[in-house]
Amino acid sequence: MEKRTLAKNLALLGLAFVALLHTGLSLYFDTDLMVVGVAILIVVVVGLLLVNL
Predict the structure, then answer these.
(1) Longest C-alpha distance within the chain, in Å?
(2) DSSP-derived secondary structure for 1-53
(3) How far apart (Å, rounded) are the C-alpha atoms in residues 3 and 19?
(4) Are 10 and 49 in contact (CB under 8 A)?
(5) Which long-range contacts (CB under 8 A, 24 or more apart) does 48-51 make?
(6) Where are the transmembrane segments (predicted)?
(7) What total of structural domains would you count in the chain?
(8) pTM above threshold 0.70
(9) Which domain holds residue 15?
(10) 19 burial class (0-12, 13-18, 19+ CB within 10 angstroms)?
């Protein structure tokens, strides 16, 4: 695996962690911002697929 691919994967996984944290906290505090976390997760999954294919 190239260094650039690894760096992109790590950046996207960090963004996925932030999205999961955002989604969990929005559920805990009962805000309507869960859509933002889910949208970020969808973008991360698509990004990971594009980077690794």
Answers:
(1) 42
(2) --HHHHHHHHHHHHHHHHHHHHHHHHHHTT-S-HHHHHHHHHHHHHHHHHHH-
(3) 24
(4) no
(5) 48/9, 48/12, 48/13, 51/5, 51/8, 51/9, 51/12
(6) 36-52
(7) 1
(8) yes
(9) 3-52
(10) buried
Structure tokens belonging to residue 24 = 């969990």
Residue 1 banded pLDDT, cuts 50, 70, 90: confident
What pLDDT, in 10s, does the model give residues 10-33?
Answer: 999 999 999 999 999 999 999 988
The percent of residues in the chain predicted with pLDDT above 70, rounded, is 100
In this prediction, residue 32 carries a pLDDT of 86
Q: Which of 47, 42, 5 is nearest to 20 (CA)?
A: 42
- 22: tokens are 């955002």
